[in-house]
Amino acid sequence: MAADGKARVPPQTPEQIRAEIERTRVELIHSVSELREEVAWRTDWREWVRRRPLTCVGAAFFIGFLIGNSQRR
């Protein structure tokens, strides 16, 4: 251990640095891909209707009521 209480990390070779950058890049690509799929799934209205049809019908009715009611004024 070093005098300041932290373990010293041996210097990396350029090849090790490149390999670490490539690993990080691949992980980032994978994470972004998963995030895109999750966002697409969460924002797909057809999936919401498939999973919660009664809630969606109720919400549509309520929104229609609000729109219809606001046009009377």
Structure explained in plain terms:
This protein has one domain (14-72). The chain has helices at 14-42, 45-51, 53-72. By secondary structure, the protein is mainly alpha-helical. The model has no long low-confidence stretch (mean pLDDT 89). The longest helix has 29 residues, at 14-42. Helix 2 (45-51) packs across helix 3 (53-72).
Could you write a compact summary of the structure shown?
With 73 residues, this protein is mainly α. It contains three helices and no strands.
Keywords:
73 residues; 3 helices; elongated; 0% strand; mainly alpha
Number of domains: 1
Shape: elongated
Strand content: under 5%
How many DSSP E strands? Answer: 0
Largest sheet, strands/sense/barrel: none
Structural class: mainly alpha
Note the run of SSEs as H and E: HHH
Low-confidence stretches: none
- Our measurement of the CA-to-CA distance between the termini, rounded to an integer number of angstroms, reads 77 Å
Q: Helicity, in percent?
A: over 70%
Number of helices: 3
Radius of gyration: 27 Å
Average pLDDT: 89
List the helices and strands and how they pair.
Layout: H1 14-42, H2 45-51, H3 53-72
Helix pairs in contact: 2-3
